[in-house]
Amino acid sequence: MNTISYSMTCDHKACDDQFVAAETAARHGDWQLCRKLSGQFEQALSQHFLAEEDILFPRFETLTGMTQGPTAVMRAEHAAMRDIVFSLRHAAASESLDDFLGHADTLLVYMQQHNLKEENMLYPMMDRALHAETGALLDLVQQQLAVQSA
């Protein structure tokens, strides 16, 4: 059986790859491609966050009673990253390389730190707490993530 750790870590990697592609397009001055790829990255990241916030976090909180613990921290970090992505999108729209790369650098640091916390702490906690429900939860998560390709 797949684990939450494995599935969500793979999705982190997919989001990271889209982010790198958008940043590469910006560095090459291909703003049309950058805007397209940035939009795809934003959609993928949004779906990832929603899968956590709407499916995994609530179930984990219900089973563990931890509502002000790691999931609260992750939600706050999601909000901060959404704000940076908004600024990134604005920089791509205005074709400002310095602004785009500045926001990209900030976002990269946030994502790296955030992903490490999820992958090394929260997801393993979820694997243990939600073990009996993993298959059903991952089916719901995959449905949520599939929205991005629709």
From TrEMBL:
Transmembrane segments: none annotated. It comes from the Bacteria. Residues 8-125 form the Hemerythrin-like domain. This is Hemerythrin domain-containing protein. It comes from Parachitinimonas caeni.
